Amino acid sequence: MPAIRWKEYLFLLFAFLWTRCVGNDFLGCGGYVRSDVDINYAQVGVKLYTKQGNLKYETECAPNNGYYFMPIYDKGQYIIKVSPPSGWSFDPEEVSVKIDGETDACSQGKDINFHFKGFAVIGKVVSIGSSSGPEGVTVSLHRGDALIQTTQTSADGSYVFTPLSSGKYTVVAAHPTWTLIKNEVTVEVADENGDAGASIVVGGYSLSGSVITDGQPTSGVNFILHSQDTLAAQPACTPGSPAGYENTLGLPAVCYVVSDATGSFTFGLVSPGVYMLAPYFHSSTTKYEVTPSKLEVVVSHNDLVLQQPFKVEGFSMSGRVTKSPGGEVIAGAKILLDKVRAAVTDENGLYYFENIQSGKHKIKITADKLEFEEMTVNISPKQPVVGDLSPLKYEVCFSVTVEKTASHSGPWTIKITGEGKAAQTLQTDVDGRGCIYLTPGSYSASVKLSQAADEAGMRFGPLEHLFSVTSDPIEELAFSQFLGEISGRISCLEECPTLTVSLQPAQGRSGAPRSVTAKDGTFSITEVVPGSYLLSVQKDDWCWKLKTVPVTVNTQNVEVSLEQVGYQLTLASSHETTLSYTTTTGASGTIVAQKGSTLVCMSGPGMYTLTPVGCHKFGSTQINWNTSSPNLVTLSATKHQLTGAVRATEVAPFTVEVQSGSKTVLGPLNPSPENPHLYVFELWVREGETITLTPGSPTNLYQYEPSSHTLTMPADCVLNTVTFQAERALFIHGKITPSVSGVTITVEGNGKVYTYTSDADGKYVAGPLDNSVQYSVSAEKRGYVMNALSEKGHFEAYKLAEIVVEVKDEDGAPLPGVLLSMSGGKSYRQNSLTENDGTIGFLSLTPGDYFLRPMMKEYMFDPASKMVSVAEGATIMITIRGSRVAYSVYGHTVSLSGEAETDVVVEAVGQGPECDQYQEEAMSDAQGSFRIRGLYPKCQYELRLKKGSGINLHVQRTLPSVRSVHADNKDVRDLKLIVLRPFNQMDVAAKVDTDPQHLSSLVAQLYREDLPDSPIQTIKLGLHPYFMLPSNDC
């Protein structure tokens, strides 16, 4: 065999082998604690936890290099955590692994490493006079002029900066509102954490609140702060108490503040503690009552805002009435306050009320021809004056007069419409007079006629009044109080027959329709009541210039013209289509029939011959229609046209195969006269028929896009349904050198994969393929390395060596499931299990020495390991024998009812001085089955429920609690453990020793120990001293 360029293949080969090997069962997790600086690795531990948080195993790192390793005895979910001294930072801090024997890092033999990031600076921000501090202070760490980190203090004021390298640091604290007495401290980090202590101090916090009167802010109220403790610092407020304040609290007054215009007050720099807060409010003439009169407040390590405001409890009010806002005053208006107290405005429009309580009051005003809205106002010591009050509406009056001979008389309805307002109506009296109250604005008013009056031709002038309501009433707007003829002529295409002309009221108007006969095309309708009408000729099979003519009769007679323009053809078609027509007079043209019903106006009289044209086929090819006896023309399509094309880059005999029940072929297709590379095809298809169109050619040298087209014929024509693009396809001709048959050739491109096989000469042809796609070609065969040559599709084959291992038990039977680990060569590593026949093959090996080790729990092997030398292309057979040295216990965990109990952890513990170091365990599966492996024949074991934190919490005990097990050179099978869950109920029974005559008056009560005042069960004894309480949850 020629020399192989191994370096060119090793990377791909070992990547392939690694992917085949990583899924095997590793029973350990290990790795390193790494650090870029010197640390004491011995202080760092690594712990293994179950997913429930139970510690499974822990170890310390090697002091020289930080290496650790932990054995894993059972598959499952684990968490590996690094356990360093407090403040040390690692990345990551923990790693979750689900050990399934295949896909996780431990099973793949990968290191799980933890990288040391640095030490920590710890400290605390405290409040003045306290050993604790506030949460939320921004603390930054600086090294020289460089900002390293920023954090915020936790609930007790403490903070931590990590990770940090050795050096000197400055801690600086800041807060947007709080005053810091000392805001920075310097600390040094060497080979351990730096402690900044409690050097940063907050000078105090704000205490704020508010005061209101009837919900409104109140200024000028004094608030005095009292405390029985000696304060660490004076708060930011005026020392002592205000003038006139009498201290009745028995506590020293620290200082006071005064509420501002918003009713707010604030004490600054108040140190944590318990205080008493008292309000004080007075003026030169009045002293007001403020509640609460005192309030205990507790200031902790934060600003305190009192949520409930202080309130001023328990003066003459006045106001003015004007015609309009800012307008003339109204004298003599009556004012009613809260429905009981009354006043009248003076010549200045003013009114007064004495002795008013703070709060909401109702005011009602009455005045001639004016209407006021009842008002609710807030009166308080700060606002005792009511703003000007003006009318809401003003009186407007109307009159309607009619002639004595009129057919209708009052009352009348007047419609009033205002800008941006809803329309209103006013009903006059029988004399036509009426008034209404209107809000200020611009209005229009008109008489709204009843249907009867409108039909009677009643008209009024003016049609409407335009007026404005401003600040005064309007005395009067007056409204003060014709039969016509409609005549016309009808123009006909032929001599006019006797026709009927109809006149009916326009839409929305009442009245009976009228009709007259038109002779020789003329007509006249008399005694028409003024109004709007619709005029029409009753001849539906004619076409009219205007079929219906709107006519309005108002104050003069009306003349109308009606003109026939043709004859109406009615078409009922299943599809939209075009019809050509000819007439007996030689006229011709086309008309379009829409799907459904279509009305067409034919311009002249006579016989018409209609011929459908277009992409639909109908039952009849010609239809006759006569204007003298017009009938409905019905068109029903039987087939529809479908067209398509093949577009090619060269001339070729293209065909289209049509598959629909039967198969037909269109073609060879003829090229289009306009484009020799376009081949158009057409066919007629019934509605609902499903067809598949497939392009092709006898030479099969072309590729088509799309390769086929399937559609179900709709109820219409389908034009240009598809254009097949035909191009020369791609064919790849390749060869394997030297000739190797059965090589799998894989061609991949654009997400598609094609496979081919080499023949006895090592040759293959791949195609036809899409020539617009870039393809990759690969070759493989077990036991060979294929080297792609420079010419695409050609490969050079190299045969590799292999080791085939067969594992048998003591009786010579195949032993499946044995883990064989082989490593060596050039960075080769593979771990695999033997198949059911006890064999495993290590293929595609490069020359070199390999180390082979068999592993399987409960077995010893001969040889226990073996060094194998492999030559180029060699096949080596190795036989290994396994002897069983330990056995398993198979069993089930079930409930008392026989149902499977899952997730029960059972352990087998060796007994006696020679075996007490042995312990194995297993968890029952979904069927309640478990298997405990690795029990030695020389030992007696106790099988029992495993105890421990977080283990078997759903199980109280088993029956039996312990079973003795001895694996006497064979597996122990069909063990059954009955699992009892914890009791969650109990019954209580008792007897009362007393004279029987007292029993009927006694009751028994059951209490919880932590709730001695609330019985949870009560029962009367009755006539018997024995009683039983209902079942209770434990």
From TrEMBL:
Keyword field: Endoplasmic reticulum, Membrane, Signal, Transmembrane, Transmembrane helix
Signal peptide range in chain numbering: 1-23
All copies of domain NOMO seventh transthyretin-like, residue ranges: 569-639
InterPro entries: Carb-bd-like_fold (IPR013784), Ig-like_fold (IPR013783), NOMO-like_N (IPR055075), NOMO1-3_2nd (IPR055074), NOMO1-like_9th (IPR055073), NOMO_12th (IPR056191), NOMO_3rd (IPR056189), NOMO_5th (IPR056190)
Bilayer topology term: Single-pass type I membrane protein
NOMO third transthyretin-like domain residues: 253-311
Domain NOMO second beta-sandwich: 116-202, 498-561
Ranges for domain NOMO fifth transthyretin-like: 396-479
GO molecular function: carbohydrate binding
Main location: endoplasmic reticulum
Segments traversing the membrane: none
Identification of the protein by name: Nodal modulator 1
Organism, as annotated: Scylla paramamosain (Mud crab)
